[in-house]
Amino acid sequence: MTSDDLLARHRAVLPSWMPLYYDEPIELVSGSGRRVTDAQGRSYLDFFGGVLTNMIGYDIPEIREAVQRQLATGIVHSSTLYLIRQQVELAEKIARISGIPDARVFFTNSGTEANEAALLVATNYRRSHQILAVRNSYHGRSYAAMGITGNRSWSASALNPLQVAWLHSGERLRGLLSRLGPDDQVDAAVEDLREVLATQTAGEVACLIAEPIQGVGGFVHPPDGLFAAWKKVLDESGILFVSDEVQTGWGRTGEHFWGYQAHGVTPDLLTFAKGIGNGFALAGVVGRADVLESVPAISFSTFGGNPISTAAGNAVLDYLLDHDLQANAARVGAILADGLRSAVGGLDCVAEVRGKGLMLGVEFVRPGTTEPDPAMTVRVFEACKAGGLLAGKGGLYGNVLRMGPPLTLTEEEAREGLAILVDAIRSSAEVPA
């Protein structure tokens, strides 16, 4: 507890549905590199990065200096009714690396807003409010974004302005498709899509939106190639494909810069957020010009792409590319994934170690079953904190330990974090080290 009882003050003025991590919540007061320090002076290696947001880490000189230069101009905000050089420069870079031809970019403040913008564009372009979404997905906390979120714990309202039809996810432990091999799973998912279109939709359908790796869903991902197989069916009717890259973008998966690239397909729209701002509020949607230009009235985001956030965004993207952090994510991510599979993958409480690059999850189950064990997850989660490591939680049943460290994580730090993780899992499972 902090000296002024910050927890009690938090509970007195903030809603109870805003969760706090840990039995004894902590206040982070400083950070450097991949480490943060709490109000009690305890240091932690951060493997969650503000929910995959502090992508470059903490107190990075290049980013701090870029923001300070903009602050020194006296212009913190001007609104997008005026030209913003930093915004234009960042849009040019993102359009170029998006992989989408003749791309346009619209900036927002968060991933939720980015997905709302994608839905606005897709429904206008197709003149339809029918959306295809994926079970176990998460796309945000706003009205429409909740409507396409396939996870009851995160769906705070049953009301929905959209007509949504649901596809099977890439879940490999449970569900109808889990018993199939990767190739058969893709074929079955395509059959599922065709059946959903034939039975649950009428007339035009606006789009299919999907995460290449489901973030809140516990880092579940389908076999590579599924999106391309889906898109062949979508193209028969002109249905748009939206790739939600809020968590998978910017090289985090290691093998590709964007998650969609694992599937050999190019989306019509791509949403981004989190890491590109490295803590500054920055997000957006990038898509084909003819699609993004389909909004029939004036629309703009007051703070989206403001001078401060885009100054940070330019510095983040330049740093990311200059230091080839995608390759680093692949390299240090392999240390973590291989190490976890070798050390704890055989435990009967570990159902799966999964993910790509620096987007990794460990799913815990009751020994010898596929029954989720959220209590075990909490034990591991708290043990990691006690060992000096911050991680995340997630999954449909709250039984997945999630890790999304900054992409600047070093090999030495990866091995340090791995040791803490292995000890936390073994001790929580009451297995001798």
Automatic annotation (TrEMBL):
Protease recorded as keyword: no
Enzyme class: transferase
The protein's Enzyme Commission number: 2.6.1.44
Molecular function as annotated in GO: transaminase activity
InterPro entries: Aminotrans_3 (IPR005814), PyrdxlP-dep_Trfase (IPR015424), PyrdxlP-dep_Trfase_major (IPR015421), PyrdxlP-dep_Trfase_small (IPR015422)
Top-level taxon of origin: Bacteria
Subunit structure: Homotetramer.
PANTHER family the record matches: ALANINE--GLYOXYLATE AMINOTRANSFERASE 2, MITOCHONDRIAL, PTHR45688
UniProt-recorded name of the protein: alanine--glyoxylate transaminase
